[in-house]
Hints:
Strand content: 15-25%
Number of helices: 14
Bound molecules: zinc ion
Largest sheet: 7 strands, mixed
Shape: globular
Strand order of the largest sheet: 6-5-4-3-2-1-22
CATH class of the largest domain: Alpha Beta
Number of strands: 22
Amino acid sequence: MVKIHFLGASGTVTGSKFYLETTEKNILIDCGLFQGKKDLRISNWKPLPVSVGSIDVVLLTHGHLDHTGYLPRLVKAGFKGNIIGTAPTLAIARIILLDSAKINEEEAEMANREGYSKHKPAMPLYSLNDAEHTITLFKAEELDRWMQLSENIQYRFRYNGHIIGSAFIELDISGKRFVFSGDVGRPEDLLLDPPVKPEWADFLFVESTYGNKLHPPDNVEERLVSLVNKTLYARGNLLIPSFAVERLQSLMYLFWKLYKKNKIPHIPIFIDSPMGNDVLAIFERFPKWHKLSKKEYKAMCRHFNIIDSYRQTWETIDDPRPKIVIAGSGMVTGGRILTYLQQLVDNPNTNILLVGYMAEGTRGRALLEGAKELKIFGKYYSVNAGVYHEESLSAHSDQKELLDWMASIKNIPERVFLIHGEQEALAAFKDKIEDIYKWKVRIPELFETAELIF
Ligand SMILES: [Zn+2]
């Protein structure tokens, strides 16, 4: 018997944590932070409803915050085992945890300074020290190699093309195969190879972020060309808020390719994201994990002006040439993009390109909904810039791509669990799988436990 606890990303997208208790080893798959709605975020402060001291090992599908961001809390609560992932996953997780700790410390400090927290003193969710201690438990493992955890339990990581290093996990327990999809990448990605597909699954746990959606056909190149031309014609600025992991590198690749194909002229492009620079170093360190050769990668980076100090940010703002700036953060919740917007958002010759999903309550969402003013650090700025939205460049498979990803499974799974999705996406995807494959599908609730008997 295996007892599974759905400790996150169940009935919702963030906070991925799946805990398996067996007679031999107790395994936690992913250890993510809840993000977004307040009632979920509060869970990040509560102790896990399982005995942390009994967890033997953590296996990570990839480095994103909603899959790794709770790790320092787990370690603070007494976890002492290994945290295992592929080498680039651990490299990304390191950057993300240190950044998250820094943000948490800064927020607590600000709350204490301005006295708006009801906790006195306000404490960070975890500190830089906690994050650094967590990183000492990291242990890298290769792809495709079966690793023995105990007499009857083994696991392996398999490439799934979502972000650099990402994998799905196959876990064999007493002859039954558990498959955890992680976040599944797209079959055609600019930088990553198509995901490998599972061929056997007795218990399948599959993400459903786009379980009810199909990505529109991709003509992002044409739209970028037209925005670049518009910017040049007006002698203005094109500002692109971007996530530091994967999105930034995909945008760089697109612009570089457009330039090489003579589709855009040589317009200066600035990359202003300290975290993005760290991720670029990971792409350089792990050339086998993406499509670019070492030579191509170097040539691509040379095409951009990569900013590494805040002084250069100001020099870039003062630079009178028409230009493109790609800067964090992706939903305009923080980061260097705020400095550019403070100076340039009131200028009608500025264009802002928002890429991907903009969560409710973010400045990105406000811009998207036509806000006339933007509040940055307590001050209001008039929005006269043009605002555009690019919905492609998603790192997640859509409904059809997810169904294809499962299509190579030769057996009939005893149970499929749909995780990592909003309610509507989960429900639609359940209907679709039952209709097409006739498999038994369940949508677990948050903090539910299930006993799988075999
Ligand atoms: Zn992810």
